[in-house]
Design a protein that fits this description.
By secondary structure, the chain is α/β, with parallel strands linked by helices. It is built from 10 helices and 12 strands.
Length: 347
Amino acid sequence: MSTDNSIRVGISIGDLNGIGCEVILKTFEDSRMLEFCTPIIFGSTKVINYQRKMLKMEIAYNGIDAANKAVDGKLNVVNVWRETPNIEPGKETEEGGKYAFLSLKAAVESLKNDEIDVLVTAPINKHNIQSDDFKFPGHTDYLAQELQGEALMFMVTDDLKVGLLTDHVPVKDVSKKITAKLVENKVKKIYQSLVEDFKVRKPKIAVLGINPHTGDNGVIGKEDDDVLRPVINKINESGKLVYGPYAADSFFGSGNHHNFDAILASYHDQGLIPFKTLSFGKGVNYTAGLSKVRTSPDHGTAFEIAGKGEANHKSFEEAVFTAIHIFKNREEYKELTSNQLKKQSRR
């Protein structure tokens, strides 16, 4: 197990033509970051050197052939490929998607093999990364397949946490996807994550409605009455503090979100618009429900500012700190529950 200052943070570089490399390099330009972890970038020294020169940054790095050769106290770069990709900042290209996947694939393999402790992913372009090897709407679904878990897209800050019942699903399909079983599974994942990953002893969770005004007694849709209310009541009766459905339009504006440890939104924009409005630049996208820890910043490739040196790296920095924090909490939880089981077995 890693010590506090040698937690190995694997980093996939995302689309080469976006701001991924920029926010990574800006994060570790501050050498104090190396006191908290050992960063390992999956890409190539040629790419990092090109980006460093383009952005006029003075930052040292250590080129290696495999993650298990990383050196503590240095920024490490695994040479996943040897060739020199064509980098065109701000452009969506087939090449950009190809190398984004190669970086992600190598990082995930190292995560599965325990060569790194956590994974932080820079943004990909969901269109140009599509291939025979990657047919997913985003990182979350790919990681769920590779790590064999039920992934939950969980947007988090210190004081706001928003999970999604459905994530990258067309709006027209949302109500068809939401079933009692799905709600139970997602609540279970949020509850488990709050306890194990964020040290919340008795989580209190709010569920947002599917329809405007939660259907207004069936006038604007029956899904809230037919699906959400019965399953929420069932979960609540089991002893978990889960409440709703709440009308989404006034939930955040009224400040009601402050009364809960987490909020479960029915679909992508219902949860992410208020989350990003309240915390943009500080938020982190965390994939809960998996055996390994993965985080990412709360923004995309930002092609419009790529290569200009204008990208704000604070969300990526927060993603690194959040991954480290969750990793430590999980290790502590395992130790505490393991000790408890040992005590019980002796009786």
